[in-house]
Design goal:
Helices cover 70% and strands 8% of the residues. It has twelve helices and five strands. Helix 9 runs antiparallel to helix 10. The longest helix is centred in the middle third of the chain and has 38 residues.
Length: 359
């Protein structure tokens, strides 16, 4: 029995510390006040779980004091969890604040109240919080279910604590600890899911142009060089968009539509990036693609969106090609198309000769 108790205590402390470390890392990564509050709540819960473990073999008023503090940390985590998952809502959460205040009062009173009275107060606090969240706070059914599961498991733990306070049967406390650990586990999965979502969003925004949705110039160059090194690059299309006649107010919408079209036409054949304001590069990595054909289809489709005109430059890529030079030659080819109305496919040496000849 003692070994099982020690295992439960270790799991509870471990999960609490993991939550603390996760929220702490989120704060140091993004320096957000919400993450700081979450870290404080997780720290209170972690310290309380250690205090509970010290007195778990012979539960007394001090044990319930730490349980009350843990409940306070749990309620604070619920507040921050709501803010984390519902960034656009500004609910005041007065019920949560009241539950936090009452749990602090219960912690202070637990040193003087009978054990069953303290556990009853905690049960009423957690049950009230659960009913409020289920029927009043959450509108999204998936989020309501997961949050209700977290609070419900913790409420079962407090219920076992209340029954133990009346009967003094230690096995009830051990049984309740299982629900406490499961509650922490659900909270961990919720937080981990959110962190993954934030990291994915951060990765997307750091590699994608905000307006067009295409790769940024830096990320395109990195991916293109990687494909070039692995000899997967077949050709490059440079798309020059004439934005001179486009009003500034409609330019962003135009670029957004252009990005959508280019992604649609090129996603099966390679990847694309916004090279500069009016220039887009497309690297073709799929073999047996008629690059000139693809470029012409893209150009004709884009001309329906752009009144100023679309001009393409196309370069075939050999085994020893230099990426910067390929892009520069494709860009010059697009400029020739703008001046002379030519849309032809050139090899690297042909392009150099034509450029040197002034054609």
């Amino acid at each position: 029995m003692d070994h099982f108790q020690a295992l439960q205590d270790g799991l509870a402390i471990g999960m609490s510390l993991v939550l603390f470390l996760m929220t702490g890392l989120m704060y140091f990564r993004w320096k957000n006040r919400l993450y700081l509050n979450f870290t404080g709540a997780a720290l209170l819960a972690a310290i309380s779980s250690m205090g509970m473990a010290i007195f778990s073999h012979r539960p007394n008023a001090i044990y319930l004091f730490f349980v009350s503090l843990f409940t306070c940390g749990f309620v604070m985590q619920q507040i921050n969890s709501f803010r984390l998952f519902h960034t656009k809502r500004d609910d005041k959460l007065y019920f949560h604040l009241g539950a936090t205040f009452l749990s602090v009062l219960t912690a202070a009173a637990s040193l003087f109240l009978p054990l069953e009275m303290t556990s009853l107060l905690l049960l009423l606090i957690v049950s009230g919080l659960g009913f409020y969240c289920v029927f009043k706070l959450f509108e999204d059914s998936a989020m309501r279910m997961r949050n209700s599961l977290t609070i419900g498991l913790f409420a079962v733990y407090v219920l076992c604590l209340f029954i133990w306070g009346i009967t003094k049967v230690h096995r009830l406390l051990l049984f309740g600890n299982l629900f406490l650990i499961l509650s922490l586990l659900v909270m961990f999965t919720l937080l981990f899911e959110r962190i993954v979502g934030i990291m994915q969003a951060a990765t997307y925004t750091s590699t994608r142009d905000e307006i067009s949705g295409l790769f940024t110039r830096k990320h395109f160059m990195q991916q293109a060089q990687f494909s070039l090194n692995r000899k997967q690059a077949r050709g490059l299309i440079y798309i020059d968009i004439a934005l001179e006649e486009v009003a500034q107010t409609s330019e962003d919408n135009l670029i957004k539509n252009v990005g959508t079209v280019i992604r649609k036409y090129t996603s099966e054949y390679g990847f694309s990036g916004r090279y500069h304001q009016g220039g887009i590069t497309v690297l073709i990595t799929k073999p047996d693609v008629e690059i000139g054909d693809l470029a012409e289809r893209i150009r004709m489709r884009l001309e329906t969106e752009l009144p100023g005109g679309v001009f393409t430059g196309i370069m075939l890529i050999g085994d020893e090609a230099d990426l910067e030079r390929v892009i520069e030659e494709a860009k010059k080819s697009a400029e020739r198309s703008r001046l002379n109305g030519m849309n032809k496919v050139y090899g690297l040496e042909q392009s150099r000769i034509l450029t040197d000849g002034g054609v």
